[in-house]
Design a protein that fits this description.
alpha/beta, 2 helices, three-stranded parallel sheet, about 10% strand
Length: about 90
């Protein structure tokens, strides 16, 4: 993912509190990560710990906000995962 992308490209990862996110963010300054939070944090905002909440079935980002999107989640557990994969692709630059 990193070797195939330009260092100036914006990256979104569907994780924010993992060692992988820390490595990517340290290598690419324009990296945004999020978690699916269950603490009543509104989508697109951060909780008290500074973790951004996003729901892969309804991302709050505008279309073409990112050059690279990475998810390492098991999407088969997401309701309507095939239909919702297009939601995740919206924020990706074409």
């Amino acid at each position: 993912m990193l070797s195939a992308s330009n260092p100036d490209e914006t990256i979104y990862l569907t994780e924010a509190v993992t060692p992988l996110f820390q490595v990517v963010a340290s290598m690419r300054k324009q990296t945004i990560g999020s978690e699916y939070l269950r603490d009543e944090t509104a989508c697109g905002t951060m909780n008290a710990a500074g973790v951004r909440h996003e729901d892969v079935t309804y991302l709050s980002f505008p279309d073409e906000a990112f050059n690279v999107i990475g998810t390492f989640d098991v999407l088969e557990h997401v309701p309507n995962s095939r239909q919702n994969s297009s939601v995740a692709c919206g924020p990706a630059a074409r």
